Amino acid sequence: MQKLFYFACLFVFASACKVQKSLQQDSKLKQGSTVQQPITIEQQAKQTILEKPELIPAHVGISLFDSKTGKFLYNYQSDKYFIPASNTKIFTCYAAMKNLGDSIVAFEYLPDEENIALRFTGDPSFLHPNFEEQPAYDFLKANAPKITIVAPRYHATAFGNGWAWNDYDADYSPERSPMPIYGNLVYFGKKGNRITVTPRAFKDSLVIFSSTEDGRYTINREKDQNSFTVEKSNRVFNGAAIPFVVKKEMDQLMIPLLEDTLNRVLNYANAVAVDQPIWKKFYSQPTDSLLKIMMHRSDNFFAEQTLLMVGNEKIGMMDDSKVIDTLLKSDMKGMPHQPRWVDGSGLSRYNMMTPQDFVWILNKMKQEQPWERIKAIFPTGNAGTLGGLYKGYENKIFAKTGTLTGHVALSGFVITNQGKELIFSIMVNAHQSAAGTIRKYIEQFLTTVINEY
Question: pLDDT digits over 310-344, tens only?
Fold first, then answer.
C-alpha cells in the first residue's frame, strides 16, 4: 500500500513538472520566441521589388493569379496603365495562335495554264536567313515566266505610330511591307578585306569612305534613302544588318529585288480582270516556327508582320489599326481594362495596358490553346530573352520580356514546386536604373513564389 502511494506521488510530481515546463515554453513564446511565420506574397513583393531604392520612385504594377481557382493571389497597382514594351507581343501572339491556323500564308494566287496572278500577304519568312526551306521561293522560281504580281490588300505605313524616329537604321526595327524579302534588311559581311552584301542588288549602294584593311570600320545608312557608307571606327567590323527603305509602290523596289534574286522579269498589275475571283492560298512555314522566334528573340519585325497577316485573314486586308480594333471587339472582348494597343511589337510608347490585362489574355490563351503549344512558343528559364536568368527553373517559368529605356516588363506563367499553375504580370515604368538590375529583382520575387507557394 505504501509503495502504491509512493508511485502515485511520483506520477503527480512528474505531471506537474510537465505542466510547468509547458507553461514556461508558452511564456517564452509570448515574450518573443524564435518561431517564424511563413512570409506572405505581399511581404515578399515589398522586400524584393517595391522597397528597393531603385524602384521607390518608379511606377510598379504586379498581378499574380491562380489559373485553377480563378482567384488573384496578389495585386499591386495591377489596374494601372503601363507602357508594356515587348509584352505587347503577347497580344500579337494570342491573335496569331487563334487566327493564322497551323501554317503561314505566303501568298494568294489564281492558277491558270498561261498566267498566274499572285498577291503577297506579308509573310516575313520569305527569303529570311532563319528559314532554310523556302517553298514560296521555289514556287516563284518554277513559275516565274507566267507570274503577274498583283497589288496587295495593304493599308499600313512603314513605321508604326509612336516608334522612335532615330531607330530607322537599327536592325530591330525594319520597315513593314506587304512583300517582305530578306527580312527587309541588308546583310553586310566580311570576307578578308572585302565586304559582302546581301541582297546583292544593294552592292552598288555601298560607298566606301575609309580603308578596310585594318578591319576597323562601320557601315551607316542615310535616313531616307538606300545609301550605305563605310566609315572609320575604333571597333572591328564583324558584320551588320541594316534596314533598307521600302518604297511605297512595289514595282519601285520590292519587285526589282525579287527579279534580281530570281534572275527573271516579272509582270505587275494593280488588279485582276476577273469578277469575284477565288484566290487559292500558298503556305510557307509552320505558324509556330515563326511565333517561337518572335517570342524567344523578341523579334519586332516578325511581330509587326504577324499582326498584318492576322489582318489579312480576319478582315481581308493588312491594316494594323483596323485589325486591332476588330480583335479588341471580338477575340479579346471582355478585357478588365480597355487597353490602348497601337502596334504588334511594342516598339511604340503609345501602347498602354494593365498587368490585369496581361493576366486576362494569358489565362484566355491557356484555356483555348494546348499547354504544350504554349510551352514551345514562350521562352523558359535561361532561354531566349530569359538567357542568364531563372537558371535551374527550366520548365518552371514561361514568360515574355519587355524592355524600353526606363521600362521593364515580364508576363507569363509559373509552375510552383507545390504544383500550382500561376499567371503573372510585373511591369515597371519610369525607372532610372539598369534594366538588368530590375530583372534581377523580378527574378528574386518569382523564384521565391515558385519555391514557397
Answer: 999 999 999 999 999 999 999 999 999 999 999 99
Q: Alpha-carbon distance 21 to 41, whole Å?
A: 36
What's the number of CA atoms in the CB half-sphere (13 Å) around residue 310? 27
Evaluate the omega torsion of the peptide bond into residue 135 and state whether it is cis, within 30 degrees of 0.
Answer: no
- Residues 267/273, Cβ–Cβ less than 8 Å: no
Distances (CA, A) of 432 to 53, 69, 351: 11, 37, 20
The residue to which cell 550605305 is assigned: 228
The SS3 assignment for 449 reads: helix
Give the separation between CA 231 and CA 332, rounded to whole angstroms: 49
What pTM value is reported for the model?
A: 0.91
| 209 contacts 230 by C-beta, under 8 angstroms | yes
C-beta of residue 384 within 8 angstroms of C-beta of residue 73 = no
Distance of alpha carbon 62 from alpha carbon 438, whole angstroms: 13
User: Cell triple for residue 49?
Assistant: 521589388
pLDDT tens track for 156-165: 999 999 999 9
